[in-house]
Design goal:
mainly beta, Glucose Permease (Domain IIA), SH3 type barrels, 3 domains, nine-stranded antiparallel β-sheet, globular
Length: about 400
């Protein structure tokens, strides 16, 4: 069942957003700074590590000031995201985002950005109030697997398996003609964008109903999704699986850029660095760039699909079943049943916040769930049943076929 977006989850972040223009300045990431200057240190670190590359990619001499969006604090530790916004009207693309982790060391802020060995090392030391054990494991796996990341990415395409969407824009840069050609534009189906693989989800540049969404995958890759609305209500750092709902295709520009025609701007990264999709296999297709941005094609065996054609998602790794996140309300667990109703015997429990895979759905006994009354029940991949009233699937309708 779809859970309404909660403004209170995002409101605390807005006070940290500052718009403006910043020219590349490169002080040390750990330069001495008073505690109130953490924002300045995070911004300087972002520009130091990515400013030159972003300027070159975007063909500009100046950049808007990076956003500073802290989400968790504990003692001398702070975790959040920082994003270099695009200007509005800038050629199709997406802003550049990184997660940051900071620790106060006497009068010095140590700031590390995800996708680096320093971030992985600092993450391992962070208190659980700042990074969960699951997040630490994901960041460690992403770092250790990065050297082994290969062309068969293990990722699917960002919509349901065995469904075809339009490839509206072939391989192109994160800002149109910019290199590398890390991004592809897709649209079609019911417009619901799903995670391309297992990992952890994060949002940055949150404005109204939209944001830039990033999934950090265990296998050394990350993927980002832009222009969406009606985003997942999952909290930053939540575990997602292949097929977890992220948002709907749209023309949203929370952090600048431009868009014509609802779509998702899907990008492939290693760490927080964009990499070319040329020769990469995603969703069972190997993508090749053309002589110009937005050209190229997808190849699967002897089948070739050019821009404007329909590409079927054949999956890539992890579960290909639709997923949902358990919401137990004020309880810590939800009972699982042997059939689609409370009259069936309880055969186990599932924890609040767990991500479950849904094999099929059925109408059964009506239940008062977290968001109201529903007779929809989900049979999980282990054969047990849970009321849809306690599962956030991003939709009020069935997300799997009938049992």
């Amino acid at each position: 069942m779809s859970r309404p977006l909660s403004a209170r989850r995002f409101a605390a972040l807005f006070s940290a957003l500052v718009a403006g223009v910043a020219v590349l300045v490169a002080p040390s990431a750990t330069a001495a700074a008073p505690e109130t200057d953490l924002a300045a240190t995070v911004r300087a670190t972002m520009l130091q590590q990515h400013g030159d590359a972003v300027k070159q990619q975007w063909g500009t001499q100046t950049l808007r000031e990076p956003l500073f969006e802290p989400t968790r604090t504990s003692g001398s530790w702070v975790f959040g995201s920082t994003t270099i916004p695009m200007t509005y009207g800038q050629e199709h693309g997406a802003p550049h985002m990184a997660l940051f982790l900071a620790r106060k060391e006497r009068s010095t802020w140590r700031v590390e950005l995800d996708g680096t060995a320093g971030f992985a090392a600092l993450a391992a030391q962070a208190p659980s109030a700042v990074l969960s054990d699951g997040e630490k494991q994901t960041f460690a796996a992403n770092q250790s697997n990065r050297a082994q990341a290969l062309a068969p990415t293990g990722l699917g395409l960002p919509w349901p398996v065995n469904v075809a969407w339009w490839m509206g824009g072939g391989p192109h840069g994160n800002s149109g003609n910019s290199r590398p050609f890390s991004s592809i534009d897709f649209n079609g189906g019911d417009g619901r964008v799903l995670s391309a693989g297992n990992g952890r989800v994060y949002k940055s540049c949150i404005v109204g109903r939209s944001a830039l969404v990033k999934v950090v995958h265990d296998n050394g890759y990350s993927s980002t999704y832009y222009h969406m609305y009606n985003l997942t209500t999952l909290a930053d750092g939540s575990a997602v699986r292949t097929g977890t709902y992220l948002g709907n295709i749209g023309n949203e520009l929370p952090c600048g850029g431009s868009s014509s025609g609802a779509h998702v701007h899907f990008s492939l990264l290693r760490g927080n660095t964009h990499i070319s999709v040329n020769g990469m296999t995603i969703g069972g297709w190997t993508f090749y760039e053309g002589s110009q941005a937005y050209g190229g094609y997808a190849q699967r065996g002897s089948t070739r699909v050019s821009v404007g054609g329909r590409v079927t998602n054949y999956g890539g790794g992890g579960t290909t079943l639709p997923t949902g996140t358990v919401d137990a309300g004020s309880n810590s667990t939800v009972n699982l049943r042997s059939g689609p109703g409370l009259s069936y015997s309880a055969v186990g429990t599932v924890a609040d916040g767990a991500v479950v895979s849904i094999a099929c759905t059925s109408r059964g006994e009506a239940v008062e769930g977290v968001w109201g009354r529903t007779d929809l029940w989900n049979r999980l991949d282990d054969g047990k049943w849970i009321s849809d009233g306690f599962v956030d699937t991003g939709s009020d309708e069935p997300v799997a076929s009938a049992c």
